[in-house]
């Protein structure tokens, strides 16, 4: 039997205050609390896998985790870098390792229950090993150095570099009555390139095969635009249809390129990779039919599908292609260049400009 909202809040309070999760940095605590609520929701769903909503609960938990990953890691790394935290490199490596574990776990999950159990295991381990230890270490560093973190955190939120949803804010305000907590406000990032870069960098999506990376970045644009439009409540059936058509065109162009590359360079896991492409095409077509039939949840489901694809396929399976051919990148680039020259693949000026803009931001931040 599913718990009511009041009981869920009480359970969350009990769990949150059972350990020293709070770091005294409102924006960080808000995001950590969001992760804890995801864990409890997932546990609740697993207590009764016969619920009609079980599958949707798992997908929602996965989506919340991905939102946590892209927003929280980017924000935290921004703050640590700004204040010259001495263990920054190690901390970032911990973030990337977490993403890798997520990607590997979900690429091999046979069903929703296996996926839910895997996600729960990873998240609980993350709470104990990272938040209660590594994150507490930088909080202690800030306190000993008398660094005023909240002033900078509020500044970057006002600049709308990071997204804080109303749902996350309300949840945090239910548990915190501190003066600093009242300073945090809901916000949406308006910079499209910056939003794409956050996901690209945090999920470690680069395959280092230019044509594949360019097309992946274009998919990120589709996802971010859909997500932003959905959050603003501006989606119409026609707008969704336009985005779905872009996704369909993406599958035709991108999968054709990967197919040619894998065949030409004799990729050993070709059959499995192509089977996953088939599943992607199937769910895009399913969402297309749902939209035509007037399903009001199609946009939310499509965002979930595409975000899951980022981690379960691009961050794991496609990076395996990059690793397999890393000693042949020059040869591979020449091959795809000829494909473009022969008109076998289309690359628009808009795609090129976006690719350059995203990679330039990543390069600037690494230097």
Shape: globular
Low-confidence region ranges: none
Instruction: Specify the number of helices.
Output: 14
- Determine the oligomeric state from the structure: single chain
Task: Briefly characterize the structure.
This protein is mostly helical and 367 residues long. It contains 14 helices and no strands.
Task: Walk me through this protein's architecture.
The chain has helices at 5-16, 26-46, 54-82, 88-107, 112-144, 149-158, 166-175, 192-202, 210-231, 237-264, 270-292, 298-324, 329-341, 349-366. The radius of gyration is 21 Å and the shape is globular. 29% of the residues are buried. It has 14 helices and no strands. The longest helix is centred in the middle third of the chain and has 33 residues, at 112-144. It has 367 residues and is mainly α.
Q: What secondary-structure arrangement, pairings included, does this model have?
A:
Elements lengths: L4 H12 L9 H21 L7 H29 L5 H20 L4 H33 L4 H10 L7 H10 L16 H11 L7 H22 L5 H28 L5 H23 L5 H27 L4 H13 L7 H18 L1
Helix pairs in contact: 1-2, 2-3, 2-5, 2-7, 3-4, 3-5, 3-8, 3-12, 4-5, 4-12, 8-9, 8-14, 9-10, 9-12, 9-14, 10-11, 11-12
Short key terms for the protein model shown above:
367 residues, mainly alpha, 14 helices
